[in-house]
Structures are given as C-alpha cells and as structure tokens.
Design a protein that fits this description.
By secondary structure, this protein is an all-alpha fold. Helices cover 70% and strands 0% of the residues. It is found in: Cell membrane.
Length: 254
Amino acid sequence: MIAFINFILYLYIFVIGIVIGSFLNVVIYRVPKEISFAKGRSFCPHCQAQIKGYHNVPVFSYLWLRGKCADCGESISIRYPLVELFAGLMAVLVFAVYGFSFQWLVVFAAGAILICITMIDFDTMTIPNGLVLALMAPALLSFFFFPQVGILSRVIGIFVISLPMLALVLVIPDAFGGGDIKLMAVAGFMLGWGHTLLATFIGLLLGGVVAFYLLAQKTKDKHMPFGPYLCVGIMTALLFGDIIIQWYFNLFGL
C-alpha cells in the first residue's frame, strides 16, 4: 500500500514537471524572439496556427500526432517533448532528494530556469539578462530555506568565480560571455563558495570534453556556448554537492 502511494506521489510530481516543461518550451522559443511568453496561446512555429488545447498535452500530444503539426503537417522538433520529459524527471529527482518541501520548490525553480538558459545558450550563444534576474528569485529564497549556507559563504560565492572570469575576459576578449559571468555571480550566492567551485569544476570538465571533441572533428566554428555546462554543474552542486565534496575529502583522508 505504501509503495502504491509513493508511486502515485511520484507520478503526480512527474506530471507537474512535464506541465512546467511545456511552459519552459514556450519561454525557450519566445524569449530570444522577444515575444511575450505571458500572453497568447501556443502556436505552430511553421504555419503559426494556434495549437488546440487537446493537442497541447505535454509529451503525449507529440506521440499522438507523430511529431507533426495537426494543421500543416510539418515536423515538430523532438526537442519539445524531450525538454518536457527532462523537466518531469528533474522534478522527480529533486523530490527524491528534498521531499515535498520548500527546498524542493526552490531547487526545482532554479533547475527550470537553468533548463531555459541551457537551451537558449545552445541556440543563440547568449544568456538573456531576464533569465539571470529570474534565477535571483530562487537564489534569494535559498537564503531562508538553506540556512546551512552562511551569508559569508554566499558573499564570497558571488565573486569566487565571476571575478576571475571577468579578469580573464579583460585579458582575453570573448574568453567568456557576460551572461556566464552574471550566471556564476547569482549561482555563487545560491550555492556558497565551496559548491560554486564544484559547479565550475564540473562545468569546465564537461565543456572541456565537448571542446576536445569539436577540435578532434576539426569543427570550423571555434566558439561554443559554455553556459549549458555551467548549468549542469550548478544543478549537480545543488542536488549532490555535499555528497561529492564529502566523497572527495574521504578519498584523500581529510
């Protein structure tokens, strides 16, 4: 009986996640085009026809319509249901770590914004200021719901990575984007300095692997977005930072 109740609860959290993921798709599509995501119904990016409510069910509508617009028949990118699925799975993962709590709400909200930043940075090589400002909301709330991260650690976290990144940009123009610097400043307040270092290390590791792959493929474009890998690092630090850091200390007997 308990197992069934847990299943229903996790299913409920998953449904919340994919519904929010559907909204994130709207944000990801509209923000770079400077279209308001707060009003107006969803529409097909090809024929501009408004999507009917029963054709706008997260994940399932894509499968039912076989990945095509119900009006014009043009293919719809599989990225839309994947973003919805990822948001749903993220909601479940955060719930597994924090349970049904304000901490879950703060971390999931941060993760949702990080998904938008990731996809938009992949698409446009920019991180919109509006999304960085939006990330400040869960960052500020984390001050109240994650009291174990002290105010001094948070203040140091603002500068521990963003300041060196800014200094590097002054020496090597375009080494990092301005959005990356702002992102790490806000994330630094949310995480504290130790977890911010961890998030950056993970971002550098992932970004380095991708950069090495692109070089091996002799890709002509020498620029790549760094924000997505920082976002993965930030989310990993939010969820598993304490575990990873403790494992590191134990590894060296500290």
